[in-house]
Amino acid sequence: MDSRISDLLGLIFRFPAPWVLTGAGISTESGIPDFRSPGTGLWEKMDPMEFSSVEGLRRNPRAFFTHGLQTIDTILNAQPNTGHIVLGQLQQARLIGPIVTQNVDDLHRRGGAIHYYEVHGHFRTASCMSCRNQVPISEVVSQVERGQIPPVCGYCGGTLKPDVVLFGDMMPADYQEASLLAGRYQYIPKLMIVIGSSLTVSPVNYLPLEFNRIAIINNTPTPMDYKADLVLREQIGEVMGGLWDEIVALNEGNSPEPVPYGFNFGHLIAYLDNEMRFLAGQKTRMTASRESLARHTGYIKADLEAAQSIIQAFPAIGRQPLEKAMLQFYLAEIERMNKEFAVWSSETGIEPNAEQSRLNKLLQDNFKDNVNAFLTYTNETEPLPDLVEHFAACAAGCFGFWSFSSRILGLPVPLQDEWENFKKTAKKHRVRQDLDQFLELFSP
Ligand SMILES: [Zn+2]
User: Fold this and answer.
1) What residues are labeled active site?
2) 207 and 249 share a domain?
3) Residues 327 and 379 placed together within one structural domain of the fold
4) Which domain holds residue 97?
5) Which end of the chain is more exposed for a tag (fewer CB within 10 A), N or C?
6) How far apart are CA 128 and CA 143, in angstroms?
7) Residue 378 falls inside a structural domain
8) What is the pLDDT of residues 249-298, one digit of tens each?
9) For the chain, how many structural domains are there in total?
10) How confident is the model at residue 415 (pLDDT cuts 50, 70, 90)?
11) What residues form DSSP beta bridges with 125?
């Protein structure tokens, strides 16, 4: 077992449903060259601005469309590779969240991904530059093949431009929607896994800054390597294939069923892991007063104990082997952090105060974040009915997990009103499924 791949899996368990950002590097194994890499590019020996800018299109439509046709051809003939397919499987198993891609090749959708943002557009359709009329890309291809350059809109005669983002274009709705949704999750520290992107193209390269932690799989250094928890320089297909093999092995040889909504134990670990990182920073350079650290570590101590009782109280019987392995991983994480905590206290000589755990408040806030994320998703330009149901189920699962944790910690369980209100909101946004089913995972 490759320990680097185990490290990656550990991050995925520890920061559940991480977002993924992909760039050209994930598609080179599908035979789509990275046009920004010198010497290997689609635009080799040509000025990329002629072929990938709005100005180039206007100045020399013949060159733009003749060349563009080759690109479209390359892309339509490409097949998703292991990287795309494993990301699709991970998303279907609910082990990763949305995929944000800088690629225009449609290979995430074709590789089985359900929730993705194409922040540089795609080649499935083209739009009229004058009236925005949208047509399938085949319309552009057939016009160009007939010698109609530039291809024209049937309504107004304006130029048809493939729906990819060229230099000089505005960013598409997908970009704003991805940033907005990522920003909705405020309380649980979150991870972004960057795959095959050198993080040099603005504004997409700012997206990882929305996340508390970053992991990077790319064959060249990126400007964010210094911030990353993990940097892998290996082949993407190999890493992703190895990752999936490890997940299947943990699940005793079977592909996993989707992890149930509300199986949120990793949220506790993500939160505590971030707290431990804060403490480690304070050991190197103490910026907080000893009094405030005594109080703060009092909270952390109480939170570690609370998290352990919540995880231990969950009935693992009947869960798939992967979930049992995840629960074991979480308990081992608590043990690791308990040890680190003891070392920290003895080295600094700071005794933790007696405090109450804050986890219950955290889980309440996380439920609110997830309700907001659901509402944000339903407001997107083209929300998919399946994903509306998914976001509603995520929020429902958070409510279930919060209720369960409160019960275990001996606190008053959340108000029924809060649940009824959420169900009303969901109904108003055309959620069809019975949301009560997502509380059953925790029924005593
Ligand atoms: Zn038009």
Assistant:
1) 120
2) yes
3) no
4) 1-29+80-118+171-258
5) C
6) 14
7) yes
8) 999 999 999 999 999 999 999 999 999 999 999 988 889 999 999 999 99
9) 3
10) confident
11) 136
- How far is ligand 1, taken at its centre, from the CA of residue 62, in Å? 19
Q: What separation in Å is there between the alpha carbon of 76 and the centre of ligand 1? A: 25
Looking at the domain assignment, is residue 388 inside a domain? Answer: yes
**Ligand 1 centroid vs 122 CA: distance in angstroms?**
19
Q: Is 263 within a domain? A: no
Unique residue bearing structure tokens 């907001």: 372
Distance 379 CA to ligand 1 centre (A): 27
Backbone angles phi, psi at 402, to 5 degrees: -65, -45
Residues 236 and 327 in one domain: no
Which tokens sit at 134?
């949208």
Distances, alpha carbon 223 to alpha carbons 27, 41, 199, in Å: 21, 21, 7
pLDDT band (50, 70, 90) for residue 85: very high
246, 341: one domain: no
Q: At what angle do helices 290-313 and 359-378 cross, to 10 degrees?
A: 70
What's the Cα-to-Cα distance from 154 to each of 57, 131, 157, rounded to whole Å? 19, 10, 6
Choose one of 326, 348, 370: the last residue of a domain: 348
The interface pTM score, or ipTM, of the predicted complex is 0.99
Same domain as 230, residue 86? yes
Same domain? For 182 and 323 the reply is no
Whether residue 292 lies inside any domain: the answer is yes
Q: Return all residues near 19 (Cβ < 8 A) that are at least 6 apart.
A: 96, 97, 98, 99, 100, 182, 190, 191, 192, 193, 211
Same domain, 335 and 363: no
Q: How far apart are CA 435 and CA 433, in angstroms?
A: 6
pLDDT tens-digit series, residues 159-213:
999 999 988 888 999 999 999 999 999 999 999 999 999 998 889 999 999 999 9
CA of 158 to the centre of ligand 1 (A): 5
* 104 and 210 both lie in a single domain: yes
Q: Are 191 and 214 in contact (CB under 8 A)?
A: yes
Ligand 1 center from residue 160 Cα (angstroms) = 8
Residue 155 CA to ligand 1 centre (angstroms): 5
